[in-house]
């Protein structure tokens, strides 16, 4: 990361030296970016996602972002580092009083993905490359080296392949600037090659054993290569519809060999054999986004598979194997010319579709887990895709009042935690009571005051059966679980120079 930042700074110096000219078209353009400051307080245990470099933590946390953007001829440089400081207080996690069998099942999942329950055991302070990039444009093509976040897909709360749930990772990208117009419609594309890093924070109680065998299997500190492809298409005869194809490929960098291994279109241009000795993580997704301007509405969906569907027959016979989905709807209700109401609804499902999948021996085929790449689909200990996590589901509705840049909104959200783990570990013994569920209600305000944008947030979280824990008195089956309530507050300030 340091080398990347030094490279961007060097480019800035070079561009500045060339920017001294009287030609307006070739003159160096400098723009100071807004200063973004987020303050957050979490009262009991971490909640929420899609907050970039911020980490799941209890207590106070601060995020800072600022920088500068420079343009000169075909070049564009943005230096926008991020700083995150978190109090990172201790909190109750997966209970040490759980049955040893549950701990064995817990590690069956979390030995194959790097999602720390808590990031270290001390205050957290880190700088990141943030929303920085070096961009070169020629004709209709953009080549970019960046550490900025990307979001693929139509969802607003979750995205299956790429989201801003984790901080941005260093990557090289190739994309078009303007839609490519053809006789059948417009196309856009983006290919990326990046690197995912590890947090190296161990899971809880990593010293535990079961029947003489240690449960925790330490992961190798190896850089993972990320390759991705995103193509969308708008038919000429149906301009309100956009269809998209996404694919990502994650493998240890040292396992790539040959030119074909670096092609970001697996099983389309570069076919992978069924019996690879080192299995990568492959995600493939299709989506649609349909605008209904007459009624000011939008309907969208994203459908993804977390496995290598090598034959058409396999896909036809069992299309729900490894399937995940995001479905959503939005509608604007005009009130007056100056303001309007906006309704949003979205549901996400990452849970395995059949019990046969959930009870598969060996590594669970849950979304984002890796059989060989055991850090899974993560960067710095956070998911690169949907932040609700493997085996989870969520349902969100939101109502906003909007006027220009101002917004007052209220949302309600339900999140079911890793139901793949729940089904595997508990229902096999006939225990159907332990669903780990969050219910969140959030008040959101975004208000513009001159140079300032102010955004307070207040959430109330009701958690039932926290970490799948139940109190179990004698001769009573349906009993209360370990329920928790907490408030989460956030205050966002953005200053435009």
Corresponding CATH superfamily: Capsule assembly protein Wzi
* Count of spatially separate domains: 1
Oligomerization: single chain
**Classification by helices and strands:** mainly beta
Biggest sheet architecture? 23 strands, antiparallel
Question: Low-confidence segments, ≥5 residues, pLDDT <50?
Answer: 1-23
- Compute the gyration radius: what is it? 24 Å
**Number of helical elements:** 5
**Ends distance:** 28 Å
| Secondary structure: number of strands | 27
| CATH architecture identity | Beta Barrel
CATH class type: Mainly Beta
CATH names the topology as: Porin
Could you characterize what this model shows?
With 497 residues, the protein is mainly beta. The chain has helices spanning 2-18, 100-110, 312-317, 355-358, 419-425, and strands at residues 29-32, 35-42, 59-65, 68-72, 75-79, 82-86, 124-128, 133-138, 141-146, 171-176, 180-182, 185-196, 209-210, 213-214, 224-235, 241-252, 281-292, 297-305, 323-334, 340-349, 378-379, 382-383, 393-403, 406-416, 437-449, 452-464, 484-495.
